[in-house]
Write a structure and sequence with these properties.
Layout lengths: L14 H20 L6 H12 L4 E8 L2 E8 L14 E3 L4 H14 L9 H4 L5 E2 L2 E2 L5 H5 L12 H7 L2 H7 L6 H8 L16 H15 L3 H10 L24 E2 L11 E2 L15 E3 H12 L6 H7 L3 E2 L8 E2 L4 E4 L5 E9 L2 E7 L6 E6 L7 H10 L4
Antiparallel strand pairs: 1-2, 1-14, 3-8, 4-5, 6-7, 9-10, 10-11, 11-12, 12-13, 13-14
Helix pairs in contact: 2-13, 3-9, 3-12, 6-7, 8-9
């Protein structure tokens, strides 16, 4: 997965909202003056720069040996000018994949499945047709995106129906069962033979959720709650299923509903049926919870050493300009200063999220942009982990 690149500046604010934004920025700058000795000041500058680029609002919380630190900028609501808060809940998109992979690896530790099981063992006959064959795809290949299964979100008809402005308005509340999403993917031949290459495919994790249910007899969301959310007391984290709203406190979510335009109309896309993403990206959380989750995961509190090692065994991402590597629901990156981080990014209607931690889990950051068309998230990660000069 590539880090979102800096995009052209886009104005998304009315005069009234711009005034509210300036007030929020002034507050953040005042906080900066009060904490000049704290190394997070470069992170704050990167957050402010992203809002200047056109992101409606950002909330960020980091945790390091100095303790927790939060900053916000911009607005939660373009209409009212309400500011974002550190407690905001938001849709985390593909960060859901780390939760799902963790459950699968826990099942492997319990010897209820193995990573080298063919998918057909658990879902007999489900992956077949057009050259797709579940007998040749392993659970491990689902988790590290080497299965070759086509990404259902890339199906042209599906994309037109859901990722354009008229399609979103017509279908935003549709319910999608996991087998139906898989059926869309199986209309296509595999992108490559299993294990021969790497390609990010949301289909992999929809299938992984189905495997969890086949092994445990319970939907994947029940296992995520019982195994991760409740033990870690992630009180802001939820698996919404078909619920269309976001629990408060939360921001509105905004999108251009266009793959090409950063200057067109801005649409409020806060409410929709998240079953369109399912186990590939439906979850809701906040920055404090995400930091706690990744600290526990990398700190060995959720997985035994063997399974954590498997999770951190990576394959190269097939983008020549991307220095990321993909493990099992976990992305490894080396930043410009040589710092290695683990985590995941998540994008879904009106929401871009990043969560990352150092290998020992002692320095974490999680942040969310409530607009999906602009904002240099990579610059924020660089600032937090590399820009530590006083």
């Amino acid at each position: 997965m590539s880090t979102p690149r800096k995009r052209p500046r886009a104005s998304v604010r009315t005069t009234a909202v711009a005034a509210a934004t300036l007030t929020a920025l002034s507050t953040a700058l005042g906080a900066a003056a009060a904490h000049d000795s704290h190394p997070h000041h470069t992170t704050r500058e990167a957050v402010l720069a992203a809002v200047d680029d056109g992101v409606p609002g950002i909330t960020l919380t980091a945790h390091d040996p100095h303790g927790p630190w939060s900053t916000t900028a911009g607005v939660a609501d373009l209409r009212t000018g309400q500011p974002r808060t550190p407690a905001d809940r938001y849709r985390v998109g593909s960060i859901t994949k780390t939760f799902v992979a963790t459950v699968v690896l826990q099942l492997a530790a319990e010897q209820r499945l193995t990573l080298d099981d063919p998918v057909d063992r658990w879902l007999p006959g489900v992956l077949h047709g057009n050259g797709n064959d579940g007998r040749l795809i392993t659970v491990r290949q689902l988790l590290n995106h080497t299965s070759g299964l086509h990404d259902y979100t890339q199906d042209p008809d599906f994309a037109r129906a859901h990722f354009t402005e008229p399609g979103f308005r017509e279908h935003r509340y549709d319910t999608h069962a996991p087998p139906d999403l898989v059926t869309i993917a199986l209309r296509h031949e595999p992108d490559f033979p299993p294990g021969d290459d790497w390609s990010y495919s949301n289909t992999n994790y929809v299938v992984a959720g189905m495997v969890i249910e086949a092994v445990t007899g319970r939907p994947y969301d029940a296992e995520v709650r019982a195994r991760i959310i409740e033990p870690l007391h992630l009180t802001a984290t939820s698996v919404p299923g078909t619920r269309t709203g976001i629990p408060r406190p939360s921001a509105r979510a905004y999108s251009k509903l266009s793959e090409t335009s950063t200057t067109g109309p801005t649409h409020d896309v806060t409410r929709f049926n998240p079953s369109i993403a399912g186990a590939a990206g439906e979850m809701i959380s906040n920055s404090t919870d995400l930091n706690r989750f990744y600290t526990a995961l990398l700190g060995g509190k959720l997985l035994p050493p063997e399974q954590l090692k498997a999770m951190k065994t990576t394959v190269p991402v097939n983008a020549p300009t991307d220095d990321a590597r993909y493990g099992l629901g976990l992305i490894a990156r080396e930043l410009s200063c040589g710092v290695h981080i683990w985590g995941h990014a998540g994008g879904i209607y009106g929401s871009l999220t990043e969560a990352a931690t150092t290998p020992d889990g002692t320095h974490t950051v999680a942040f969310n942009l409530n607009g999906d068309w602009t904002g240099d998230t990579g610059a924020i990660l660089e600032a937090e982990f590399c820009g530590t000069e006083d």
